[in-house]
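tool_log.txt
---
The assistant was asked to compare two proteins side by side. It first ran the structure predictor on the initial sequence, then on the second. Raw inputs and outputs are pasted verbatim so the downstream comparison step can read them without reformatting.
(1)
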Amino acid sequence: MSEFSFGCMNTDHSLPTPHLDVIVKGSGPALLLAHGAGGGIEGNFGLVLDDLARDHTLVGPHYPGAGGSAVAIEPLDLDDLADRLVAAAVAAGQDSFAVLGESLGSAVAVRIATRHPDRVRALVLTAGFAAADPVLALAAQLIKSLAAAGQWEDVARLALLSCMSPADLADLEPAALDEPVAQTLTAMPPGMLDHFDLVSRVDVRADLANVSAPTLVVAPTGDRLVLPESSYRLAAGIPGAQLIELPGAAHILNPADRATWLRHVREFLAALPATSA
């Protein structure tokens, strides 16, 4: 098993040079990880990276402005981002893979599946959306407005309120809120506004009917940032998609909900046809 981070080189002339910070970890059939807005590979998948890497090769590119990837110099483009993630996997020696997309990463994964169908073995879409629902659109606008006013601590408070479940928040004493707010603020990447700008523009609704890869949609029913109805629409729009609900789970899965997620995802991946040697 190996783990390293690198800046990818272009190994496929049909793909762009990714110029992304990429984590590669494990061995076995490849899983390409597509993280959410304002997050990163560790932030989204950290609780399950070691487990999945026991029998999969994980390729985790950081979007521009996340991890060690340089901040974008122009607005993010969904097609370009999708192609750069695929190029990162190919540069890591993985010509085909399942894509695990979370939140914004679900839309990225859908676009990958329709632009590169011969490479995509399966999709797992968690807390995802094809286009921003009203709650997500309002949150994205608030984040952009607060950030423009320099109120980054309020951005962190909004993120905490939106991404944690009421049950998890109820366990916090009001006097103890400063610490998780500070932790959230520290974890926000430099490219956060670029990511949420893309959130407000992304629309893969027309792609859904063209997804041919086996797909598992995971809907956290307690999500207060991306409404569960967005996941239901993904599942309804993708031919043959399976839908799993995580009752009461928030946008950011706590350890117990992530363990349930892992069990469902492992069962789904185990049922896929074996990769050719």
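(2)
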Amino acid sequence: MKQKIAWGKLYLGLVFIILYAPILYLMIFSFSSGKTMERYHGFSLQHYADLFADSRMITIVINTVLVAVLSSLIATIIGTLGALAIKETHGTWRNSLLSLNNVLMVSPDVIIGASFLIFFTVLGIRLGFVSVLLSHIAFSIPIVVLMVLPKINELSPTLVDAAYDLGASRWQALSRVILPAISPGIMAGYFMALTYSLDDFAVTFFVTGNGFSTLSVEIYSRARQGVNLEINALSTLMFIVSLALVIGYYFVSKHAGRRQRVVTVKEGDAQ
């Protein structure tokens, strides 16, 4: 038994090394005073200074964050309402809605990007901020639905019935009972949509236009011209931000879970 546990830990450690070694390698060379990744030339913050002096890159970072925050927020609202609507349906309609929701999840990004490009072209929508924002909202909604729906299924129907018995209106039951109870799923959906939007490349590449770009598209364009350690510095900062989001989500979900357990215990004592 001990031997199996040792092999399992060894395998897990190997997986983490394979996943994080390239990232660590990239981060180390972001502090190199050289201009290539062939050899480390000594510690320097020059590439970070060049990054913050690059006005185009700063603008692109702002564009990327703005699109990610807005698309995630709108997708979370629509996805949460969609999950509540799916919960109210039954039978064939429910299965059909779930299948339609999963289409964007299982479809290749290239197909989705090309479809959005054709759609915007037919409607005459100019490619740029609006097209990227709408595309990110569209592929983020199914993610939110899949994160929120399990929390709705876990919600006790007697809790909602008790709210109605106490004279609560439909809006009061939704805002004071249902939404607080499923808030961990809503937060999870928002963070997942945010991370998907920040690092999306394939869909964004199709629907972005002249004068507007996101980090993933810009990094791809610059990488084709040759390795620039300014990209390493940018990638390092993005990794730190992503790590901070994951840690923040962990503590938020942990606090929400603890609060939910307290509510459950109080309900059990009351009964």
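---
observation on (2): Residues 229-270 form the longest helix (42 residues). The CA atoms of residues 156 and 181 lie 10 Å apart.
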